Task: structure prediction
Amino acid sequence: MKFPNYAYDYQLLIKHLFERVRDWRPNQEIIYRDKFSYTYLDFYKRVHKLANLLKSLGVEKGDMVAFMDWDSHRYLEAYFAVPMMGAILHTINVRLSPDQLLYTINHAEDKILVIHKDFEPLIKKVMGGFETVKDIIFISDWEDYKPDFDTVGEYEELLESQSEEYEFPDFDENTVATTFYTTGTTGYPKGVFFTHRQLVLHTITAIAQFGAITEPTPFNQFDVYMPLTPMFHVHAWGVPYIATVMGVKQVYPGRYDDMIVKLILQHRVTFSHCVPTILQMIVGNPATAKFDFSFWKVVIGGAALPKGLAKSAMERGIKIMSGYGMSETAPILTLAVLRPDDMDVDFETKLDIVTKTGFPEPLVYIKVVDENMNELPRGRKHVGELVVRAPWLTAGYFKVEEKSKELWRGGWLHTGDIGYKDETGYIKITDRLKDVIKTGGEWVSSLDLENMISQCPSVAQVAVIGVPDDKWGERPVAFVIPKNADDKGIESACRNILLTFVEAGKIEKWAIPDRFIIVDDIPKTSVGKIDKKVLRKIYAEKYAKG
Ligand code: AMP
Result:
């Protein structure tokens, strides 16, 4: 049968998300620290101006435009303007080593670099090695600053003289829109990339999901949004796109410093997302104890949400839940929402639900499989690797064929996370494949142990790793930061709390770590997660013999 087709060939392009910005809430505010504030209408115009500026520098379809900035309105402008021209936005991780930074800039074939003045020392170290960069735009951030290398000018000054008219073209929705490099693993970072279609579907699905829930962290047009995951990392979880489409007030904090708490209180920010460490820094800081955060909703991702942290946040009235995703997945895969049937559950049960890894979003499939890709039954006893399908997963790693094939072996994206699906369909991650502790032939979840130890009231932060052991293969060791630096009883407090979980049948006695090493710092990755690779190294160098 042949059906007629005279319709407009509607491609899922970011420009179709953007168009409503002009009319929906033209007077709504977008704020950058205490430095700048403007309306959605101004934002709409400036996105056009940025496209004109980039065009004047010769940017064409498929060209890479790279940004190195703190979380800002400028980044938001680039999230739209660059892909809407048909070019690709490369969001650079500002915490890469000089060597990795140069590698990613050359590997991505960046043509234009837009850099904040704070990164001048870093850029100067590597610019001699640039292979493709043609022009640099600098950001003075309203400070008296002139770079001592060649640039085409300052971002705000250059925008001023541009026209507000720009015709964003139509093109194939499978055109790549954004790219960035993964962090953390060995070797050089790998580039993941996302198309217009993927980002549009990711945005619309998240709007539907957040709008459909009431507990614990709905996100809708009445919210005030502030990201607390860097905009260079997985498009700040895609939430700036979501916020912009909904037309909410947006607050961009710039560099993460003392200003964050001031901004939350001043603008009554109601919705944020971050890794556990950032929330810990805010709620665990005695100086914030006097502040009321009861209007604040926070989605925690990037790492498991420890129960102890969730509890102390909830006790302060903060509404909290976990979300799960990774660089390769754009990122949102699951949210630990409460089902309507769970609205009246008690505090402890609620704590259990919101600290699970979550229920898959619409369109997302997650399977738990064994090494042969056989799907495992539901239940906490059936732990295996999580493999995923969704419309917004990276198709591979840029210019790295073998790793791309490996990522997608068997037609499913391999997360490298292990966990289980419970009887009700919620996912629970128990470890990273490379972090799980294998002791005496049994698997012990480092995340479970961290979760339990975090519930000890005298513990501020904890990380558990597996260390080599002649007899058992590996044994768990815990690094603990006490709330009170002089706490002599911290080790026995940790052991005692674990014994209560042994008694409750949650863990075996032999899973209790052999050592509790008291430290005043735990190393973090460039995106603020506990860096277990570095911890294992520290252990080997400093503690293994002791
Ligand atoms: P990245 O690609 O740097 O964003 O890291 C992704 C990894 O962070 C995942 O593969 C997980 O290991 C971890 N992760 C993210 N969200 C969660 C979560 N809710 N619970 C446990 N681990 C998580």
About this structure: DSSP finds 18 helices and 25 strands in the chain. The chain has three domains: 26-193, 196-368+421-432, 437-543.
